[in-house]
Amino acid sequence: MLYVKYRIAPAVLPLVLFTGTILVLFLGGVLNVLAETAYVLFGGGLLAFCYTVFLFLRDRRLFTGLLSPGAVFFAAGSAFFILMLQNEIFLHYDNFSHWGLIVKELFQSNSLPDESTIITYTTYPPGSALFAYYIVTFTGFSESMALIAQAILITGALTPFFLFSSWKKPVHAAAVLFIPAVLLLVNSSSIFSLLVDPLLGYIAAAAVITAYYYRNDWKTMGVLLFPMLSALVLIKDSGKIFLAFTVLWMIALLIRYLWKYGRGWKESFHSVIWSVGWTILFPLVFNLLWSRYIEEAYNTSEYEDSKFAITEETLTDIDKSPEFINNLLPMVVNAGLDFSSPLVQGMVLADIAALMTIVIVKMKAGRMPFSLLYTALTANIFYVIYITLLYLMYLYLMPEVEAEYLAGFDRYQSSVVIFSTGIMMVFTIRTWMEQAGESFRNWITASAAVLAGLLVFIPYTGEIQAFFHQENSEAAPRKAASSLLTDLRQEEPISENTRLTIINDLGESDRGFLRHLMRYERMTASTFVHTQCTTGEHQEQLTTDIEKSGYLMVIQITSEMQECLNATSDVEVDEPGLYRIEEGTITSTIQTEDG
Fold it and tell me: TM segments (predicted)?
């Protein structure tokens, strides 16, 4: 309907609608009418769809115009992910610690998290989770459907990369397919999780491309970018960095516009108002709303207690050892410029493709492709700025025990690599599109566009298997733990308040995987997890937890763990299974249907 009424480019519509949905749902959540908002959105969308079908039947040319390369990519990409992810489950640790947990919490409570919920990362914005919530509200909750919802959101964010494509140049349009292929492989396994770091890069790059496409129509640009940029700050706090990058890009476009087309102070003033009001003011308003919501929902200024809070104390008191401080900068520089990494290789090859295009076009066409030149320079400058900000984060905000091995660096880096590589590839291929039919032969420019996409794709070929097949060795206990929990629920009248002790004797810590898994499975914190019993302190804690529990779940056990259990057991606990606990003593096994 938006296409029919306003002739918005079809390639940008999915992302505008999806990010707009996130904003409307967020406002509904703040007003405590989240479920009602979802149903009103769905009903309104259904009416708009029916009306548009009527219009298309009356004038089929409208439908033909809508079927741009971007729209076809979006439809095909969505169908692809539905088929690919339809039977997948969560395996990644962070799905259970927050990103999957919050979707399940939203679905069960139909409200934003507060003190009554089990969410522990209380300051993490709920943006992408709200979109997944919207989908599962109508399909029913399942892990595969949550993954599909996020994948469709990602597909919508990749669709604007086709803004400059047309069916008149089909080979060039096909070359653009390399862009989503490359970007999806930057963090290949993330498609099987609800992690949002890659999503930030997709949306920010899409916003930059949309801004350039509408560089001479500031009103339309402002309206379209408003939901994208507002969603960035509601998806993750680091989205503010990409908001700043996009705003800097828009300032450059505004200077260009005023220099080239400015006709007086009145028009200039209107352009500035639209750019500032829609793309800066409104995102900051949504960020303020989220901050205020946290304060009211948790009755505290929770932000200052969060892990990565930027406060006067964190900026003035570096709680790190001198040795760590001296080694941190070389560590970050080496990681950011690690040429053995596909991410860095892809960036370098994108630079090479852009540079070769600039040189060839200058030599053959006799003109400088300034848009590509400025884009390549901007992309690399933004990459350096982002890596610098990561250095400051490790120095000031992250605990030393995690910062000393650059915890999460690849994940954080993937955001800016997606952003920088994506915009460089778009403008490289666009430059070749512009040359088609001018001073070059069409087949030469088409071949060059394809080769540019293929060149950047090469470093990521090793990631293809990880993209199509979910593998996570750390998640091996999930199947056994979930199966035993299902058996226990079938055999015993347990509730969310029933306390369980789980033993998975690894001989070392599992970094909280099972603890987060059981919080997610049970939506309660009433589970104690033990992965080793090698010290007196371990044994004492195990005894204490068994005294508090009603049931014992054993996934894996060794003779050392059996010795720790002897003092609290009337039966021999020597194999995986379920056991009853009465008054702090393991009294009997629980027989299940499958034995």
Answer: 12-31, 37-57, 64-85, 131-164, 171-188, 194-213, 241-259, 271-290, 343-361, 373-396, 416-433, 440-460
At 168-214, the pLDDT tens digits run 888 888 999 999 999 999 999 999 999 999 999 999 999 999 999 99
Helix (H) or strand (E) holding 231: helix 218-235
Average the pLDDT over each of 3-7, 91-95, 127-131, 231-235 and give the range with the smallest value.
3-7
| 217-229: b (≥16 Cβ within 10 Å) or e | ebebbbbbbbbbb
- Cα torsion 32, 35, 36, 39: sign: positive
Rounded to the nearest angstrom, the gap between the alpha carbon of residue 273 and the centroid of all alpha carbons in its chain is 31
Q: How far is CA 182 from CA 371, 380, 467, 532, 562, in A?
A: 22, 18, 11, 42, 50
φ, ψ for residue 589, nearest 5 deg: -85, 160
Going by their DSSP bridges, the two strands 551-556 and 577-582 should be labelled as antiparallel
8 Å CB contact between 222 and 275: yes
d(CA 328, CA 228): 34
Between the alpha carbon of residue 19 and those of residues 120, 153, 324, 453, the distances in Å are 25, 9, 41, 28
> 561 is written with which tokens?
């763990």
- Give 415's contacts (C-beta < 8 A, 6+ positions apart): 197, 198, 200, 201, 238, 242, 386
pLDDT, one tens digit per residue, over 14-26 is 999 999 999 999 9
Which residues, listed in sequence order, are joined to residue 589 by a DSSP beta bridge? 579
To the nearest 10 degrees (0 to 180), the angle between helices 13-30 and 197-213 is: 120
Identify the H or E element spanning 500: strand 500-504
Which tokens belong to 180? 């989503």
Which tens digit of pLDDT belongs to each residue from 384-429? 999 999 999 999 888 888 888 898 899 999 999 999 999 999 999 9
Between 57-61, 114-118, 327-331, the lowest mean confidence (pLDDT) is in 57-61
Q: Does the predicted TM-score (pTM) go above 0.70?
A: yes
